[in-house]
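Quick one:
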Amino acid sequence: MNNCIIENRFFSIRNKIPKDVKILAVSKNQDIFSIEKLYKIGHRDFGENYIQEMVTKYKKLPKDIRWHMIGRIQNNKLKYIIPFIHLIHSVQNIKQINIINKIAFKHRKIINCLLQIKISNDKNKSGITYQEASQILENEEYKEMKNVKIIGLMGMASFQDLIKVHNEFSYLRNIYNEYKNKYGHYILSMGMSRDYNIAIKYESTIIRLGNVIFSSRK
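Output:
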């Protein structure tokens, strides 16, 4: 895509949303050229769904990019991203947290993570329940870990029913506010290209945008 189009799309959104809301550019299936165009206008936060694709892009792009893992976690491949990952949005169980902690220890790093909460009834959207999230945060094994830190929540809303979207974002915000008061969480990752304006109304701190910035994915 022409870099002027990417630039115009990005700044059109940036200028309309609150300054304290971070844009995460979802670069899944986008080519290096398109990512570089966004990088050159000063953007640094990019999100990927697949570990191998992220690793490939990491090797080719500037090292001050902040890479976010937003897709389903493959435990056996976590070792490839721990050395450089900025934030993992999609943690769903204590086993994943334990693996992250062990690998991060070897690299002398502390890895920040979000718990992915299931807020939609859509069977294609994964996540854990409020009860499961609470069990993780109260888990004694997790409390002893030194190289992994849960700092917030992530969720994906329904596709079309706007009433449901409002209810789902409201539900996640309420959980987030409870955890923020109890655990000091400070990141709420919700809202995508189709619903980010609604997510912002419910106090999202990170919106994950792909097609509204880039062209349609390959």
